[in-house]
Amino acid sequence: MKRRADAVIIGGGVSGCGLAYCLAKRGFKDVVVLEREYLASGATGRCGGGIRQQWSTEENTKLAMESVRLFGQLDEELEYETEFEQGGYLILAYTDQEVEQYKKNVAMQQKLGLDVRFIDPKEAREIAPHLNTEGVLCATYCPSDGSANPFYVTQAYAEAAKCLGVQIELYTPVTNIEKRGGRIASVVTSRGKIETPLIVNAAGGDSVSLAKMVGVELPIVPTRHEIMVTEQVEPFFTTMVISFKHGVYFRQEKRGGILMGYGDPDERPGFDITSSMKFLRTMSRKILNLMPALHRVKVVRQWGGLYDTTPDALPILGPVDGVEGFIQINGFSGHGFMLAPKVVDLLAQLITGEELDLPIDRLHMDRFLTGEISRDLSVV
Amino acid sequence: MTEDTIICRCEDVTYGQVVEAIEQGFTTTEEMKRMLRCGMGACQGRTCGRLIAQIIAAKTGTSLSQVPLPTSRPPAAPTELAILAGTPHEETS
Hints:
A: alpha/beta, FAD/NAD(P)-binding domain, globular, B: Arc Repressor Mutant, subunit A, two-stranded antiparallel sheet, 3 strands, 8% strand
């Protein structure tokens, strides 16, 4: 392992590996990525793989739209099949309040150039056959939303970064971060120390404890989120279906398994990611309500991962006040995978001193100090 | 065993693919599962898990006891959604 580097990125998920690649591509190659276990072993590899552009805030929508454009170029650029598919996202509205909110969302999204529209329950059933639309007033549909394989995307970035000279150290947990005179000085790992003027905190839920090592309090709450998947059945729909009212999302993977998750409002903050019986039962009830035809389909596996949730469900990007050379790329609140391609591109622009082609000032950590935050409402 | 011998029947993963993944540096069953999907099918690795651990041990020159099997995840056997949805109301962690 190197003893000094121009930058050290902590976290071998999609953000860490993606940023390493984007830096190296710009000629900033003396970079080390530190990963506690193996690549995508944290939140990236535990996510549902969905890629959505339908958000209630302009910040998330713009980042997501640019990310979709970049996802479309990734396989060619990185020479890797990442299984990116554009099967669409269908968001169901059950109440007048939801309809009103979605009208605002769609107007904003269309203004930004997104191909999104309102559809009636009948068309929703055509897009997602067997969908129970009882009580559904309408839905929003964006055909260019989709999914990709989080392991493969991470691996693709990592391999391309390595080809350009980045060093990726697996099974190397960080034990301390040292600063000198208000500046980042070095990072201490289980395998020794690396002197560096720049540390990027891309550690998902663990970003909080890393930031504490240099006296920075990130307003991030780690919270378990569970997912399960069924046996493979004949593919019959390509879209992700979301109901914010039920707190549910589900899609059928290309191979046929139906993947589903829901955000439990009673989930308490913490680092526990074990599987719960409560999720298995509640999720089964919710999915059978939305798609009763699945009652004989078998669940093969469930798992858990961490959301790194911020007060406004928007990520924390860029430097922090008080510690020079400490860059944040965390707090994605469950949506880090889908926003990654554009976010890592922007952070690479920031670090190499380029002019940013999409401003991220509003995602700076100091927004939580002014008390004026606008929460993204489109969160499961 | 030949290149084409099926190791994971659920996901059609061959001996050749497993060996290739080891050569690329994926030397744990967890990484292998994520790269090749072996252990993600209906049997959840109950058929192929030990086989893969054996191949990793042989190819990396370690003892089988030093190659951990992947995390075992619920349910213990594939279970119909209808049965899961009807489970009596109780909490376990």
